[in-house]
Amino acid sequence: MKNKNFFYFNKVPVGSTVGAGDSVVVALALSEEKGMSLEETVRLSTATGAANVMCSGTQAAEYEVISELISKVAMHTI
Q1: Quick check: 2 pLDDT over 80?
Q2: φ/ψ (deg, to 5) at 7
Q3: Segments of 1-78 assigned E as strands
Q4: CA 60/CA 19 separation, integer angstroms
Q5: How much is the mean pLDDT over the chain?
Q6: pTM reported for the whole predicted model
Q7: Residue 77 φ then ψ, to 5°
């Protein structure tokens, strides 16, 4: 795994996991549509899933919350 990137995100408070995976898939599709880089795609998808986990029930996360979390997705090269 020389010179490979990996991403991680710290724990977030869990409101509900319902729809979190779906929101990640939507972020992946949007990233593909917009031609985003792998790094941008991983950051957006991770932040979107995390933001949705923080919501209660089936409530979708607000874009402002997702935007705040994008910069908190850490990337490291190993």
Answers
A1: no
A2: -120, 150
A3: 5-8, 74-77
A4: 8
A5: 86
A6: 0.82
A7: -105, 130
Q: Report how far Cα 66 is from the mean position of its chain's Cα atoms.
A: 8
Q: Which two tokens stand for residue 71?
A: 């910069």
How far, in Å, CA of 42 to CA of 24, rounded? 9
CA distance 78 to 60: 34
Determine what percent of the chain is predicted with pLDDT higher than 70.
86
Q: How many CB atoms lie within 10 A of CB 66?
A: 20
Best CA proximity match to 24, nearest among 1, 43, 48? 48
Q: Are 9 and 72 in contact (CB under 8 A)?
A: yes
Tokens coding 51:
């933001």
What are the tokens at 9?
């995100």
Both tokens of 66, joined, read 């997702």
Please list, in sequence order, all residues whose beta carbon lies within 8 angstroms of the beta carbon of residue 35, skipping any fewer than 6 positions away: none
